[in-house]
Write a structure and sequence with these properties.
By secondary structure, the protein is α/β, with parallel strands linked by helices. It has a six-stranded mixed beta sheet with strand order 1-2-3-5-7-10, with helices on both faces. The protein has a four-stranded mixed beta sheet with strand order 4-6-8-9. It starts with 5 loop residues before the first strand and ends in an 8-residue tail after the last helix. Bound molecules: acetoacetyl-coenzyme A. Acetoacetyl-coenzyme A binds next to helix 2, strand 6 and helix 4.
Length: 258
């Protein structure tokens, strides 16, 4: 299949699939069309028995977040569906049967950070900047970060990142445990593909079992946490601060929160 804003490429062995979000004019911000295309591309990679999946962004950004221009007008009910769709993509990445590697180039904010968090491993280019910046839009992370980020960086760091909307450069994020390695931007794609190739060469069933066993340790209350997050995220679309935060972004001015 082909999509307007997503590509799926395979290596010569048909083992490593690379999903690229390709909407560079919006710094790969995720709209409904792109999220739905990601779901289909992930399904295609699954059906093609990919032994590893790389997720990356075209151009100078990984993913600058959920599409604020779309999101700003959503009602609570619409935000519920929007949150469900983003969660479905993050869950599809997280539960992909083979290992996943995020190749984080440039901006990875909000929902973009969350797609990277859903991957098993993260490699960054030196220009990467990552963060859950939603607080400055009057909302909270809506696609998994309140549950996935603390597991990766620890509670204190996650709270600081989310409460303050911190944007971490690649080295700081690596020190926090968000990135396994930082490489030169021009090497990022090769390094991520090579790592995915090494994973693809491992015994697939054992790797799958290892992945599922590690994931198992997070089941239970984190699921309840994700469901809680969905409701909390959607409810914020009934607030002044959400409207104001997103209007201010679009109008390129400082927000005036309640
Ligand atoms: N949504 C929609 N459009 C976006 C976008 C987003 N998240 N991020 C960037 N764009 C668009 C810009 O509006 C701009 O479009 P136009 O040329 O049509 O005006 C284009 O991409 C280029 O962006 P900038 O001109 O702003 O580029 P810059 O280099 O000056 O700044 C940036 C880059 C720092 C990433 C800045 O664009 C920015 O702060 N973007 C928003 C980041 C953000 O807050 N993301 C979180 C979204 S909330 C979320 O994701 C919720 C969730 O959990 C589900």
């Amino acid at each position: 299949m082909t999509w307007e804003t997503v590509t799926l490429e395979w290596d010569d062995d048909g083992a490593v699939a690379t999903l690229t979000v390709d909407r560079p004019d919006a710094l790969n911000a995720l709209n409904v069309e792109t999220l739905e295309a990601m779901l289909e591309a992930i399904e295609e990679a699954t059906d093609g028995d990919a032994r590893a999946l790389v997720v990356t962004g075209a151009g100078d950004a990984f993913i600058a977040g959920a599409d604020i221009k779309y999101m700003r007008q959503l009602s609570v009910e619409e935000a519920q569906a929007w949150g469900e769709l983003g969660h479905a993509v993050a869950d599809a990445i997280s539960s992909f049967p083979a290992p996943t590697v995020a190749a984080v180039n440039g901006y990875a904010f909000g929902g973009g950070c969350e797609m990277a968090l859903a991957c098993d491993l993260r490699v960054a280019g030196e220009s990467a900047i990552i963060g859950n910046t939603e607080i400055d839009l009057g909302i909270i992370p809506g696609w998994g970060a309140t549950q996935r980020l603390p597991r990766i960086v620890g509670d204190e760091t996650a709270r600081r990142m989310i409460y303050l909307g911190q944007r971490l450069d690649a080295e700081s994020a690596a020190e926090a445990g968000l990135f396994g390695e930082v490489v030169a931007d021009e090497d990022l794609r090769d390094v991520a593909t090579e790592l995915a190739g090494r994973l693809a060469a491992k015994p697939a069933f054992a790797l799958q079992a290892a992945k599922q066993s590690i994931d198992q340790s997070y089941e239970g209350s984190p699921r309840a946490g994700l469901d809680y997050e969905k409701r909390a995220f959607a409810s914020l679309f009934g607030t002044h601060d959400q409207r104001e935060g997103m209007e201010a972004f679009v109008e390129d001015r400082e927000p005036d929160f309640e």
